[in-house]
Write a structure and sequence with these properties.
The chain is an alpha/beta fold. It is about 45% helix and about 15% strand. Bound molecules: uracil. Uracil binds next to α9.
Length: about 450
Amino acid sequence: MYALIRKKRDGGTLSRQEIHEIIVGYVAGTVPDYQVSALLMAIFFRGMSDRETADLTEAMVASGETIDLGALPGISVDKHSTGGVGDKTTLVLAPLLAAAGLTVAKMSGRGLGHTGGTLDKLESIPGFRTDLTASAMIAQAREVGLAVVAQSGDLVPADGLLYALRDVTATVDSLPLIASSIMSKKLAAGAHAMVLDVKTGSGAFMARHDDAFALARAMVAIGSVAGRRVVALVTEMAHPLGRAIGNALEVTEAVETLRGGGAADLRALSLALGSQLLPVARRGGTVEEARAELADLLSNGSALARFAAFVEAQGGDPRVVDDPEAILPRAQARAELSAEQEGYVASINALAVGDAARALGAGRARKGEAIDPAAGVVLLVGLGARIAVGQPWATLLAADDEHLAAGRALLGDALRVSAAPVEPPPLIYGVVHPDGREERTARSIS
Ligand code: URA
């Protein structure tokens, strides 16, 4: 280990064999934390080549079990978001893809800090279970075309160990370490094709656009070396996605979108991710054709019906699609925030809204903390809208006045109002295609 740490420290390149030995030794307990910590810091400063990053990912995948989706009918697809505020896209996109004939057998995570997690959102539906075994997940995906379950601890144990170490050694925000961490879990979960939603902006991991594109390129390259078809979109996360932030509130908004309505940005992002993935997964057809097909599946009720079947298969109450507010838990306390200035809504800070939702009870500051499924924030105005003094712009929902006060304190500064009309920012900054080709679709600010 000493020689390998020194090699990376001095800017050298580790071989595939060396990387495998490090990971095998670390998981087996023969390589100690202090040496892996030093190596992580050397990687943080020196980076890794695409080859090294792919080798690291492969070694991490090999540290545990992998799921074989080869026996499932249809093309198995997956979706990953690097995490956002109000990002309930999986709840819309997964049933939409299943309605289009693809198979979605997906492992998801829980929310931490200012970002939400798909499992927490789904578990706000009474009865919904996410603790399915891999074989139960596959059986359900065969039956309904769709299953979303909790990430199994048997997959990629190396990531659990490395992430915990990165967390306490200031080495989380290293591009090759993030890319290998995310992609090892995606590769082990078995999908043949996948779409990655790499967020950028103040509420995202990668606040700078160029860093988000670099992460997208690195993850697409890892997929390509592993023989999977991966397309990545770089998308906006300076502002929350949609109007609802908080678990049950987001399920309600997703159901509205599956009914063909919902917030314009949530619908647009779901269609953009789906229409990039469809031709890649099917190896044919155009993005425009895919968009028209998916828009039809939203308006003709097919995606909503698939969501209801999925909820029922996982023990949840399928009537959530008919009347979400009657089925989902409701908050006891509520308050409204009003604008103090008149003008146009220039920005609603995603990080502040995410922190406020967490303080209201919707999220957790530490792993394993309980959450309140009914708590959160509903935004009453969109970007660019005209707003008057005293006009309510957000509703806060919580279990009691104490939580409301904590949320209010963090949300106070989130709204920026401009005297002049404002153009809402683009939603999508670009696409990284499976062959590595990069297409920037909107002006992006580095
Ligand atoms: N998400 C992950 O799974 N891993 C990282 O390193 C960062 C975000």
